[in-house]
Write a structure and sequence with these properties.
By secondary structure, the chain is an alpha/beta fold. Helices cover about 25% and strands about 30% of the residues. The longest helix is centred in the first third of the chain and has 13 residues. The radius of gyration is 17 Å and the shape is globular. It has one domain: 4-Layer Sandwich (CNF1/YfiH-like putative cysteine hydrolases). It has 7 helices and 12 strands. The chain has a 6-stranded mixed β-sheet with strand order 1-2-12-7-3-5. Bound molecules: zinc ion.
């Protein structure tokens, strides 16, 4: 079974809201072997599909669901957001937003930042979101775009959990990439993301974006590159698996 690095519940803020379960995975548990050992949840990295399916089942079970309830992304490091009401595989989006109960939204990464949101909406269903953000996502502004999307649908009191990612010390980057980050993001974000001399700390940039929106996230997991036992890192291994985050609004419980 897939072992979470951490899991919990986004508690409702407004009366009438439903809570949402969330979980963050690493590489522990699961059924994959070799480079994908052992909780790889990505189908596109060369792992045995049967093992991936078992790991996705284990991921879904972390929030009380099964594989058929998952909403997965094929992200493209852009700024497109999919508003979804059913499970499935959604292409060309880097964020999913849903108000539907019983769907598990998943974001994956192996150095890129996976994160989830919960937005309270008073008497309406709350909103949940899963986002994938690498350095291109930081440049594109996918995280702030998702927060604005949630607010546009009436969400307030937004909470967030940010999963594991590579740190700036381990993610040395071309000067041109650093320049793009500096030119494309507000000062607070670029200062956070470019705090090391040669690297980009995408997660620090994401946390700065959240802070500017008044959101103090729970941050789970250390640097992917520095924790080979616990976390997948693309930069460290190239051929490797993906960890991720999942969030789902809880199913309605019938009154007895
Ligand atoms: Zn590091």
């Amino acid at each position: 079974m897939v072992l979470p690095l951490a899991s919990g519940v986004f508690a409702p803020v407004a009366p009438g809201d439903r809570p949402a379960f969330w979980a963050v995975t690493g590489r522990l548990g699961g059924n994959s072997s070799g480079a994908f050992s052992s909780a790889n949840i990505a189908s596109h990295v060369g792992d045995d599909q049967g093992c991936v399916d078992q790991n996705l089942e284990g991921l879904a079970q972390l929030i009380g669901m099964n594989r058929s309830h998952l909403a997965l992304m094929e992200p493209v490091h852009g700024k497109s957001i999919g508003v979804v009401a059913q499970a499935g595989v959604f292409t060309r989006v880097d964020a999913l937003v849903s108000a539907s109960q019983g769907i598990g939204l998943v974001a994956m990464g192996a150095d890129c930042v996976p994160l989830v949101f919960y937005g309270s909406r008073g008497l309406s269903s709350p909103l949940v979101s899963a986002v994938h953000c690498g350095w291109k996502g930081l440049v594109a502004g996918i995280v702030t775009a998702t927060i604005l999307e949630l607010r546009g649908h009436g969400a307030s009191d937004i909470q967030a959990v940010v999963g594991p990612a590579i740190c700036g010390g381990c993610y040395s980057s071309h000067a041109q990439r650093r320049d793009l980050v500096r030119q494309s993001t507000v000062k607070e974000v670029s200062i956070a993301a470019l705090q090391t001399q040669h690297g980009i700390d995408v997660r620090a940039g994401v946390i700065a974006e959240l802070a500017l929106q008044g959101i103090a996230p729970l941050v789970v997991g250390g640097c992917t590159y520095e924790n080979p036992e616990e976390l997948f890192s693309y930069r460290r291994e190239r051929v490797t698996g993906r960890q991720g985050v999942i969030v789902a609004i809880t199913e309605h419980q019938e009154e007895s």
